[in-house]
Automatic annotation (TrEMBL):
The modification 4-aspartylphosphate is found at residue 55. Signal peptide: none annotated. GO terms for biological process: phosphorelay signal transduction system. Keywords: Phosphoprotein. It comes from Maribacter stanieri. This is Response regulator receiver domain-containing protein.
Amino acid sequence: MMIKILIIEDDEITNFITKTNLEKLGYKNIAVALNGQEGLDYLKNNTCPDLILLDINMPILDGWDFLEATTRLNLGVKIPVVIITSSIRFEDRSNAELYSNVIDYMEKPINFEELNNLLANLKTKKIES
């Protein structure tokens, strides 16, 4: 079962590290968007991913605005989202809980063992459904 992952992150070094580590874990179907607007465009023009890794602080359209836009446009609102951020603000963590599709909140640097466990659970749920 192939899991399709969309990374929405403006930092290209973080994208390289994330994509490389996910590929080492066996995940090959990975797309990258450099801001929330590119993420929305991706959702409009491609088959929906199984998981979105979403940064909060980005130019053009940040993570919160991306989540609001997906809700407003009813675009991929059932896609599980993991927020990946350098923000340690309590407000960000509690704001994430307002979105039913946000399944986890991870602070950078990403713990790839934890992320791999989450992806394995997602893969199991996908096979069962």
